[in-house]
Amino acid sequence: MTVESSTVTDSGNDGGKVAVVTGAGSGIGRAVARLLLDSGYRVVLAGRREQELVETAEGNSAALTVPTDVTMPADVEALFAAAIRRFARVDVLFNNAGTFGPMGSVDEISVADWESTMAVNITGSMLCAAAAVRAMKVQQPQGGRIINNGSISAHSPRPRSAAYTVTKHAITGLTKSIELDGRGFGITCGQIDIGNTATDIMSTLGVGTGALQADGSRRVEPTFPVAEAARAVLLMADMPPSASVGSVLITAAGMPFVGRG
Q1: Are the C-beta atoms of 48 and 79 separated by less than 8 Å?
Q2: pLDDT for 164-218, tens place per residue?
Q3: What pTM was computed for the model?
Q4: FRET label pair with 116: which of 65, 124, 126, 161, CA 20 to 30 Å apart?
Q5: Coil, strand, or helix at residue 53?
Q6: What's the CA gap between 179 and 173, in Å, rounded?
Q7: Domains of the chain
Q8: Which residues are the active-site residues?
Q9: Is 17 helix (H, G, I), strand (E, B) or coil?
């Protein structure tokens, strides 16, 4: 059951643009949500753990926290209903919730782990995008912007990341399809692909101590502050309706990606 909470006391139907941020309880989602709030947005924070959402909001009166499991259609519908009930519209969706899933090559991954990764990264993103599009089609003024969080893995995978890599390639297809189908309704869709921003997942991959490379070696890789990734998302969100940013690739300078590493 999705339960919304907020410290806001007024009706909240005027003010800055309204953004929904999924996966807002940590990492990139938390950084983006806080920057949007600091930039005058009214922000709906979605994630599975309520306490983390409350910590992201930091008592900001323009924040609405809605615990949400993006793999559950009823939760997603309740999330957007809460956003519209509180703020009357949705201008931006940062479709960010995701999981790295199992580490392994395609022959080593269990079906259960594969399906759970697909459920969060693909189905969850589709459900949130669908709910956002439905809201953006009927609101006045019509339209809005969806920003999908892809990954550098949408361009080039890490070793032993088959499940995650497949989902991020799929996000690229989802992004292009939404951008095409949204044209007649003033809805734009772009994708940000981030490589090696400093979040907990980088520790899981061993980036700071020695990440697995294609040749089997391990290498300490550079990272960059998550605040810079958030600034890139804000840039995309702040574009006028007449412009659409199709894709942004932002990586740590010097990370093994371009050329031979």
Answers
A1: no
A2: 999 999 999 999 999 999 999 999 999 999 999 988 777 777 777 888 888 899 9
A3: 0.92
A4: 65
A5: helix
A6: 10
A7: 5-251 (3.40.50.720)
A8: 164
A9: coil
